[in-house]
From TrEMBL:
<dbReference type="GO" id="GO:0051879">
    <property type="term" value="F:Hsp90 protein binding"/>
</dbReference>
<dbReference type="GO" id="GO:0160009">
    <property type="term" value="F:histone decrotonylase activity"/>
</dbReference>
<protein>
    <recommendedName>
        <fullName>Histone deacetylase 8</fullName>
        <ecNumber>3.5.1.98</ecNumber>
    </recommendedName>
</protein>
<dbReference type="GO" id="GO:0005737">
    <property type="term" value="C:cytoplasm"/>
</dbReference>
<dbReference type="InterPro" id="IPR003084">
    <property type="entry name" value="HDAC_I/II"/>
</dbReference>
<keyword id="KW-0804">Transcription</keyword>
<dbReference type="Pfam" id="PF00850">
    <property type="entry name" value="Hist_deacetyl"/>
</dbReference>
<keyword id="KW-0479">Metal-binding</keyword>
<dbReference type="GO" id="GO:0000118">
    <property type="term" value="C:histone deacetylase complex"/>
</dbReference>
<feature type="region of interest" description="Disordered">
    <location>
        <begin position="1"/>
        <end position="28"/>
    </location>
</feature>
<keyword id="KW-0678">Repressor</keyword>
<dbReference type="GO" id="GO:0032204">
    <property type="term" value="P:regulation of telomere maintenance"/>
</dbReference>
<dbReference type="GO" id="GO:0031397">
    <property type="term" value="P:negative regulation of protein ubiquitination"/>
</dbReference>
<dbReference type="GO" id="GO:0030544">
    <property type="term" value="F:Hsp70 protein binding"/>
</dbReference>
<dbReference type="GO" id="GO:0046872">
    <property type="term" value="F:metal ion binding"/>
</dbReference>
<keyword id="KW-0963">Cytoplasm</keyword>
<feature type="domain" description="Histone deacetylase">
    <location>
        <begin position="72"/>
        <end position="358"/>
    </location>
</feature>
Amino acid sequence: MLTREHRCGRSEEQEPELGLSPKKAGSGRWLRHGWKWKMEEPEEPADSGQSLPPVYIYSPEYVSICDSLAKVPKRASMVHSLIEAYALHKQMRIVKPKVASMEEMATFHTDAYLQHLQKVSQEGDDDHPDSIEYGLGYDCPATEGIFDYAAAVGGATITAAQCLIDGMCKVAINWSGGWHHAKKDEASGFCYLNDAVLGILRLRRKFDRILYVDLDLHHGDGVEDAFSFTSKVMTVSLHKFSPGFFPGTGDVSDVGLGKGRYYSVNVPIQDGIQDEKYYHICESVLKEVYIAFNPKAVVLQLGADTIAGDPMCSFNMTPVGIGKCLKYILQWQLATLILGGGGYNLANTARCWTYLTGVILGKTLSSEIPDHEALIRPGIRDTKTNKINPVPSEISSSNKGDGTMCSNPGQMRSIAEMFHQGFEWNLGGWSGVCRVKKRERHSRQRGQRLERTWCLMEPVRSLI
């Protein structure tokens, strides 16, 4: 009988061996039913009862510099003030962020890009002839001090990642991070530095397999591109996908390249989606990913531009819907780095991230926003409701659309089908592994869960 233990996120240095019958695929179990083997989903881990308080990355200086970003002015202050109003900061371990060094930023970004960003930042030169080459311009203006801002955000996310590495916490939060569009040598989409990539690279010092989950309205293209050739980092992005919508990437057929093929999962969604359907899609995809990839740590980007009332006018989500997705990931009890991202209705973004902070702490927040001196200024109390979690009808006329999962359903396969084709492809490429043939029986009715059977065939020689 064929013998081996395998995992989808294996180390390239350690090839699977032939031995006993298959035992594990990620955290799931292989169970024999006659001559067939079927995957059973993993049980939820037991709570050790020794939970550590989350780390909350904060300092007055950090909030002040994040407030300077022109696209979201004073947003960082508004978020922290609402967290403070609910006294949530007292239930977390506050860690002052450090500023990223040039060497730390250069673990991903090119020296040429960083040097140019530093130069134009010092001079406040938005018309430098080389800036267009580095993506500095319309949506990423080269304003004075922008390099210091980028270094602060990058350093904060690295600080949060290091807290997880050091075992200070199970969850670390940097709400002012999550700038997922920046490329290796280019600013993009209001993002000057890709702090999410820097955080993942830092976590890789300890954790073998990192799962990046992006719930922003926009495709997390910068993070996906950074890890598109590796099997050590898996990226999952749920996002709006339609002609002309930035960044124009993230089709379901975009699955990674080389050794990273099928380690990128994209879930394109149309306008109008609401909490229930969004959570169903998110849970279905992440369940498959968790079983197959068996991540050791998670980086979660929670951009709030999906919330109804955002100027992007796309999704009809509420903080409760995003909170359910967050709870699903937290029940894995893995080291988890929480980042912010988009969110251009500043009041709703503050509401959302404060609500999610409560979810992380396991606290049910009072619906009515408490009094706080920082909330008197224009912002949260200027909106139609003073609730922490208003329904879409209270904060915006509903965005039109039905939230279909794929923008061209007739041309796209289901996410689960695409993912398991990749799973089979990786199995077939391992040294000393059997060939696997997949059988599927499923209803064509939308939303019906696929039932899969994996059939073991004869062993084959190394294919690598």
